[in-house]
Design a protein that fits this description.
Helix content: 40-55%
CATH topology of one domain: Recoverin, domain 1
Family: In the N-terminal section; belongs to the peroxidase family.
Keywords: Calcium, Hydrogen peroxide, Membrane, Metal-binding, Oxidoreductase, Peroxidase, Thyroid hormones biosynthesis, Transmembrane, Transmembrane helix
Number of helices: 48
CATH superfamily of one domain: EF-hand
Structural class: alpha+beta
Main location: membrane
Oligomer: single chain
Shape: elongated
Distance between the termini: 116 Å
Strand content: 5-15%
Largest sheet: 8 strands, mixed
Catalytic activity: NADPH + O2 + H(+) = H2O2 + NADP(+); NADH + O2 + H(+) = H2O2 + NAD(+)
Radius of gyration: 51 Å
Pathway: Hormone biosynthesis; thyroid hormone biosynthesis
CATH architecture of one domain: Orthogonal Bundle
Strand order of the largest sheet: 10-9-8-7-13-12-11-14
């Protein structure tokens, strides 16, 4: 504490010249300013401190290391702290100990040490005389005893860092010793040549005798193991009025090395700095001489050695200072580095969390705009087909059942009928109003009186919900008028809405009733046990009474046959069966028709057909009526003959039968003509010669699934032709053969290039029946078993992928949790660093290898290799979505970890940060860390991380199923941000803030593969392709036929991606090829299901210009494969599809027909297309003339010819 006083003395610039005896020193011969302090420190202070004299100086020793040892740094600081008193006296030269003015203006006997740290504006230290008084007071004051006791000013109130104003000096020294790696107490003694201690009492025998509790507590702290005792506690325990052997040896060794290893030591005569006389003069200079010269005090006011006060020396201290009578130490103050940043930090985190919401709002706006444009385009199309009589209906919501959603409908009341249409004016239902029906109107009496139940006999009910009672009342009045106009009686009453819902017969309930209806119907026709047919419910409700008298409407009759209500066959058969003419078929009426078709003789069948198509009822069938009959059966079989071709066939049949001169046929003529031309008429699915059952009746039989196929087809040959599954049609070469008792037509033999044998059994499988287990556990286990069987490849690949992902996470988490303590970052932010580093490794792996799922060309190639047996390449897109979903979850966790890191780094002192990030921070002593916004927006990882979150929010929201369906262009454009995503990912990790960059380890290989795959696509998808033909087909389907690029090879069932140059050169959409591989051109059938496809239909609606250049050109990318391209590898292929999803089957069937026609060996013997007309409406495929489509999902072969067999 005295060094600054005598080195920066305010009394003179050359105090040393005054302190040295002898003649005055000139400026050129003044000794070095360090010569006197060297002498005072080594030859005056050190002997008084160690109570021993240092060895004699032998001269400069150049090979001696004079550096400061770690043991000396820790030992000197800690041991000297035991000698510091709680206060310091101040006195003048006349030995008057003056009072000290404290900061609170109080007066105390001494200057309190703990309140004087780094204090330059103390009230008692305002002048040079005050500093002199402080120095004089210190010369008279006696230090604390050298022992293990330390005053609280040093122990609890030592000046701490900026964050904590107070700290424990001893604890800091102990921690610093551990940081420096000091040896243990016994190892240090052994290294310095001192004997190691074996007993705790031997450390300090005097302390052991006077107070052994200290040694016992210390021994207990170190588990009674003396080898664990650290250097600093052991050295303190040794001292008892002196530094002790260990500390004395360390301090003496350090001072001797400093002296002997210093080339410029004042006693070194070889350096030429001082002569022997001058050296002797310096040796005689003491600190007392310096103080006398500096502060101009009487030498009698100071003892001979200012470092030691003996009894009898001048100016004794009043008493040994203690904390009593001194002001209390100022309490410690904790500085919050995050103070004032909480609000901004919360706003920043809230803003980051709002990125998905902002992206969601943007996507919603885009979707609304796109849907508005799409509806405008749809409205333009609908305006041309909407008739005036359908305009102005009543709006309502139709309640379809408790488990079904309500749907908006429009009701149009017309003479004799009620038409229910949807928003696109598609007719959903037509209710006939014919006498003598009685209609019941049931109105709700509660819940706003907004519900109406229209109960029509022999049909399911119509339940309507309105917004207001007034709207319902308007419809009720209109219904009354319409019913009166139609001559129908009706009744009205009210019920509570809940009772009204329970009383309603829904479409589902009606379907169950019809199912039982058909079961009982066939049980009588085929002599099936009644127990197998099921029973009707036997309570007395109105529903049961209606079920017992169940009658089929025309629409239900057509639906049961799998046909359209407007088909000629349906009209003719229904009119013939409806004997009472009430517009419905009763159980008995349906039974009479069914018995003839299934058990009748050929004469009965032909007579029934004769009556059906004798439209004028004159007992004769004209040639026009015969043509209409064949036309109706062609509609059923969905074969395709032009009017001229059909007329040619009829003329040929009349001529071969000898009826070329007749214009009308009697029943006998009709019967013999059908019998003689049975083989030619089989393309119409009309069987008269034998006992075979028409296909439409077979379809009806299959609705009652309990009916054995042998019941329908009794003969072995015919039963082989019947399917044993649900609604199914076999497309095989044998399917086109004639019965055994007729010769196969020459056209078939020639078409398939081989002779058709007299007996070629069809391929079929026998259903494996298992006992139904009603146990929920058994059903759950069965479902789980089936799931494992069907998705074992998927499960294996997903398990491997996530095992790697989890391993990467655990490796990084383990490293930063247990193996990175040397970096110090784990001690600062354990949870945050473990979470952020673990997820970073997994994210790097996922975002890298997700590229492989989009390498379409590579996937198409690998599907043809053995790897397809182990890797489900067809599920690449689903796997892409799964990886993306997992990656975004890990990204959120990664962001949460970094939010924790930023908070902890924002409250960590600069000294800590400079240790954690030495390349980023320099410890300038300010201790103030950077604010949170610096980490977020002023560092490369922080700024790129924020931008990455924004990019991911945009990409993920626009890639969701809803917005992808509403605005594919928005999805397409935003998904191209993946380039920016990977650039930001590379930059994000390249700063090496915490660890060296590792992203390239995962990214390099997938990026090279993906880049090569994109180059392959780029080499072909930027070639302009001309559209040869464009045709607008029904149901909003656009047919495109375009040139086949040179070298373009594909397989049936594959798909391509196209871009229309008129709609943008970068937006590609996938579509399945409907052309066959042997064709010279490519074709697509595209349904207008969205804005892009609707706009495409509009563009190709009115082409102008030359023959080849009139249509906008296309870009083509592909082909790419799916699972159905391998149909030819199996003996039996089952094609399941609905709606526009049947387009791959067109290419497959064309390919099958072509390969059969050129005598190609086809491994596939049977192609089945099971479906349901409920799933695939016949009208939805009316656009497809090239591959006819029957209501029973029968796909024909128009390429087989057009003479007599199609």
């Amino acid at each position: 504490m005295t060094a600054p006083a005598w080195s920066l003395s305010p009394h003179g610039s050359r105090p040393w010249a005054q302190t040295l005896p002898g003649p005055a020193w000139s400026n050129s011969h003044l000794p070095s300013p360090l010569s006197a302090p060297q002498n005072i420190a080594v030859y005056e202070w050190l002997p008084s401190f160690l109570q021993k004299t240092p060895p004699e100086y032998k001269g400069y020793r150049p090979f001696l290391d004079p550096s400061i040892s770690s043991e000396f740094v820790a030992a000197s600081e800690q041991f000297l702290s035991t000698m510091v008193p709680p206060g310091v006296y101040m006195r003048n030269a006349s030995c008057h100990f003056q009072g000290v003015i404290n900061r609170n203006s109080s007066v105390s006997r001494a200057l309190r040490v703990c309140n004087s740290y780094w204090s330059r504006e103390h009230p008692s230290l305002q002048s040079a005389e005050d500093v002199d008084a402080l120095l004089l007071g210190m010369t008279s004051q006696i230090a604390e005893r050298e022992d293990h006791v330390v005053v609280e000013d040093v122990r609890d109130f030592w000046p701490g860092p900026l964050k904590f104003s107070r700290t424990d000096h001893l604890a800091s020294c102990l921690q610093r010793g551990r940081d420096l790696g000091l040896p243990s107490y016994n190892k240090a003694r052994a290294a310095l040549g001192l004997p190691p201690m074996t007993r705790w009492q031997d450390i300090n025998t005097a302390l052991s005798r006077s107070d052994d509790t200290v040694l016992e507590a210390t021994a207990s702290l170190y588990n009674q193991d003396l080898s664990w005792l650290e250097l600093l506690p052991g050295g303190l325990l040794e001292s008892h009025g002196d530094p002790g052997p260990l500390f004395s040896t360390i301090v003496l060794d350090q001072f001797v090395r400093l002296r002997d290893g210093d080339r410029y030591w004042f006693e070194n005569t070889r350096n030429g700095l001082f002569s022997k006389k001058e050296i002797e003069e310096i040796r005689n200079t003491t600190l007392r001489d310096v103080l006398v010269a500096v502060i101009n005090v009487d030498p009698g006011a100071l003892q001979p050695s200012v470092f030691v006060w003996h009894k009898g020396d001048p100016c004794p201290q009043p008493r040994q200072l203690s904390t009593e009578g001194l002001p209390a130490c100022a309490p410690y103050v904790v500085r919050d580095y995050f103070e004032g940043s909480g609000f901004g930090f919360g706003v920043t985190i809230g803003t980051l969390c709002c990125f998905p919401l902002v992206s969601l709002l943007s996507a919603w706006i885009v979707a609304r705009l796109r849907m508005r444009n799409f509806k405008r385009l749809q409205g333009q199309d609908c305006q041309s087909i909407v008739s005036e009589k359908l305009v102005g209906g009543t709006e309502a919501l139709e309640w379809q059942g408790r488990k079904e959603p309500c749907r908006p409908v429009l009701l149009h009341l017309q003479p004799g009928q009620i038409r229910v249409v949807d928003g696109s004016l598609t007719v959903l239902r037509t209710i006939q109003l014919q006498p003598p029906q009685q209609v019941n109107l049931i109105l709700s009496s509660n819940h706003g009186r907004r519900t109406l139940l229209l109960k029509i006999p022999k049909e399911y009910d119509l339940v309507l919900l309105f917004n207001l009672e007034e709207e319902r009342q308007v419809l009720v009045e209109n219904l009354r008028a319409a019913l009166k106009e139609s001559g129908l009686s009706f009744q009205e009453w009210e019920l509570r809405e809940q009772e009204l819902m329970r009383a309603a017969v829904t479409r589902e309930q009606r379907s169950h009733l019809l199912e039982t209806f058909f079961r009982h119907l066939f049980s009588q026709v085929l002599d099936i046990n009644q127990a197998d047919a099921g029973t009707l419910p036997l309570d007395s409700s109105q529903k049961v009474r209606e079920a017992l008298t169940c009658e089929l409407s025309r629409a239900e009759f057509a639906e049961s046959l799998g046909l359209k209500p407007q088909d000629m066959f349906v009209e003719s058969m229904f009119s013939l069966a409806d004997k009472d003419g009430n517009g419905y078929l009763s159980f008995r009426e349906f039974l009479d028709i069914l018995v003839v078709f299934m058990k009748g003789s050929p004469e009965e069948k032909s007579h029934l057909m004769f009556r059906m198509y004798d439209f004028d009822g004159n007992g004769l069938i004209s040639k026009d009526e015969f043509i209409r009959m064949l036309r109706s059966f062609i509609e059923i079989s969905n074969n395709c003959l032009s009017k001229a071709q059909l007329a040619e066939v009829v003329e040929s049949m009349f001529q071969e039968s000898g009826f070329q001169d007749k214009e009308e046929l009697t029943w006998e003529d009709f019967h013999f003509m059908l019998r003689d031309h049975d083989s030619e008429l089989r393309f119409t699915q009309l069987c008269v010669k034998g006992v075979d059952v028409p296909e439409v009746i077979k379809d009806l039989c299959r609705r009652a699934s309990y009916i054995s196929q042998e019941k329908i087809c009794p003969s072995p040959r015919v039963s082989a032709r019947c399917s044993r599954s649900s609604v199914e049609t076999e497309l095989t070469p044998q399917r086109l053969q004639c019965p055994m008792d007729t010769d196969p037509p020459q056209e078939i033999r020639r078409r398939f290039g081989k002779k058709v044998t007299s007996f070629q059994p069809l391929l079929f499988t026998e259903a494996h029946r298992e006992k139904f287990q009603r146990s929920r556990l058994h059903q759950t286990m069965q479902q789980f078993k089936r799931f494992i069987e069907n998705y074992r490849r998927h499960i294996g690949c997903v398990a491997v992928f996530y095992a790697i992902t989890g391993g990467l996470f655990l490796e990084r988490a383990y490293y930063y949790a247990f193996a990175a303590h040397h970096t110090g970052i784990t001690d600062t932010t354990r949870v945050g660093i473990i979470l952020s580093r673990g997820t970073a490794a997994s994210i790097s792996f996922m975002f890298s290898y997700i590229l492989l799922t989009m390498c379409r060309n590579l996937i198409t190639f690998l599907r043809e290799t053995f790897l397809n047996c182990y890797v489900p390449f067809d599920a690449a897109v689903d796997f892409h979505r799964l990886i993306a979903s997992t990656a975004i979850v890990l990204t959120v966790l990664h962001s949460v970890g970094h939010v924790v890191n930023v908070y902890l780094f924002s409250i960590s002192p600069l000294s800590v940060l400079s240790c954690l990030f030495p390349g980023l921070f320099h410890d300038d002593g300010s201790e103030f860390p950077q604010k949170y916004y610096w980490w977020f927006f002023q560092t490369v990882p922080g700024l790129t991380g924020v931008v990455l979150l924004l990019v991911l929010a945009i990409m993920y929201v626009f890639a969701s199923h809803h917005f992808r369906r509403c605005s594919f262009r928005g999805f397409w454009l935003t998904h191209h941000l993946y380039i920016l995503l990977y650039v930001l990912l590379i930059i994000h990790g390249s700063f090496a803030l915490i660890q060296l960059p590792r992203f390239h380890i995962f990214f390099l290989v997938p990026a090279i593969i993906y880049g090569g795959d994109k180059l392959v696509s780029l080499s072909r998808k930027k070639v302009e392709i001309s559209v040869v033909k464009a045709e607008l087909l029904p149901s909003g389907v656009t047919y495109l036929r375009f040139q086949r690029p040179q070298g373009f090879e594909y397989k049936s069932g594959q798909w391509v991606r196209i871009a229309c140059l008129a709609l943008g050169t970068t937006e590609y959409h996938p579509f399945t090829l409907t052309s066959a591989p042997h064709e010279d051109t490519l074709s697509l059938h595209i349904r207008a299901a969205g804005p892009w496809t609707t706009r495409l239909r509009e563009i190709y609606s009115a082409p102008t210009g030359d023959r080849c250049a009139r249509y906008p050109k296309l870009y083509l990318d592909g082909p790419f494969g799916e699972g159905h391209q391998e149909w030819h590898k199996f003996e039996v292929s089952v094609l399941v599809g609905g709606g526009i999803g049947v387009t791959p089957f067109a290419s497959i069937l064309k390919d099958l027909v072509f390969k059969s026609s050129v005598s190609c060996q086809v491994f596939c013997k049977k192609v089945s297309a099971p479906s349901s007309h409920r799933l695939v409406a016949p009208s939805s495929l009316s656009w497809y003339p090239s591959v006819p489509f029957s209501p029973a999902f029968v796909l024909g072969f128009p390429e087989l010819g057009s003479s007599k067999l199609v």
